[in-house]
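[[Per-residue structure]]
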Amino acid sequence: MLKNKAISIISFFLLMQLIFFIIIGENSYLEIHDNLDSVIVWLKNMRDYKIFWDFNAKVPMLNGLNRNYFPSEWQIQNIIYYIFPMFPAYLIVYFSKIFLGIFSFFLLCKELGKEYNKELSLLIGFSFALLYGYTGLYFAQVSIPLIVYFLLKLEQTKNKKYYIYIFFYPVLSEFTRYGIFILGFLTCFILYQLIMKRILKKELIIALIILSVGYILTEYRLFQVMLFSNEKSMRSIVNLGEGRNFFKVTIGTFLGGQYHAQSLHRYIILPVCLFYFIKELKKDKFNILKFLSKIEVQLFIFVILNCIICGIYEKEWSRNIIENIIPPLKGWNFSRTIWFNPILWYVLFYLIVLKIKNKKTVTFLVIGQILLVIFKPTYSNDFGNTIYNNFFKKNTTMNYKEFFSEKLFNKIKDDLKYSNEKSVAVGFHPSVLNYNNIFTLDGYHNAYSLSYRNQFRKLIQPELELNENKRKYFDAWSGRAYIYSKDIGYEPIKEIEQKEINLNIDKKQFFLLGGKYIFSRAKIKNFKELNLKFINSYSEESSPYIIYLYELGENNER
């Protein structure tokens, strides 16, 4: 039933999404968490301030964080943001990752045994490529099948051209959240062959070295900061403590995956797998060894192991072991092996569906999974969430245009004759100011300098003394260096209760850090005590914000 229809089906859904995004434009509901509040704005700032290629330049957030703490200029996804304006770049990345994911999955499927079905590999590859997660690493997420394909072909053919492909692969990937695991898995495979089969393939050893060098060269800034900088990272004091229940996390990730690398496997793929395993176990007359020898079962065990690792990460003792053995990995999240489960689930799905003889069943399962991935409102499903927010839900969250409100902030900057003075945000994400090219003392970054973390903590200490939840949150991680207030959150909702708040900051520290302006979504009741001067309130018809602007007065040394 699907014969010769894969390209038409894929083209239909892609064209539907493209037309939709062109019509909706910047009124689309793009993911804010770990997206518009961070990486997208980092890339915009580096482009706008012409420091994308610079070494040791200052990015205008977190009081001028060093450029070397930000994403590499050699990764293709980042280059797209350098070349194109933000919203078009975002869509180019989204559609490019779909094509890259289909291509990668298609190539890998050709190497997965004698049986091969082009239509199935394209359609299941399409559903894999559509998957959502951490948008800043979309290319890394969908290109995992590509590096596996390169390694398999190198092992089979020994053709030296694959060394070149492997060397350049890191421009599609990222080291700390994907590369280090790929290198680890490859090392384990080499050791497995050596110990269990008494085979040592020099091609894979060379590939391991070449891939490592590729990552080091592509992300030389990361390695410079991590290994050769005298400046400590705030990750060196990350203390997450005892986490969630091991069994709840393990079972939860098995059933639902992890939101930064979603698999959406629970409703169709998982039942198909379980039905197949029961059937095969009966067919093998419960011969466990024969059952375990099947590649589908081995991939399923890999999935389960990744879920168990995710559960183990929640235990403080497990993180301490890693940190004591390899100190530079302090704060590293080794539970991200779970980010490899999406490709495992979809390869499993492909291998099992390949064996189903009923064509109508195959069509129902494959098309059903595509529809599920496209339309289910979930983290970073910008297409599904835009439909949901526009047609099925009371509009309380902000879309892209509203979140950044360029007209409003341009109006404020024009009124101030703004000239790169340092500012902070109260009641909204600092990335909104950064996007509008306003220099901030606050910001969101997962690995900025420890010295600045301590300086910023002094600034917000008066609030942390009153707000135990935020004190625990900031001291455990410190990634969000925000001006917290128990009276107002920073969630991007359109309407907030209009009330006056007490702002609890160290006014002397604000002065010492060079702060001048405070942009707030609420009136500050104690502004005079903080030696602030109220300038004006600002609003704009297309923006949900009302911004109350304050300026630091004179005589702030006490």
In short: The CA atoms of residues 402 and 543 lie 5 Å apart. DSSP finds 26 helices and ten strands in the chain.
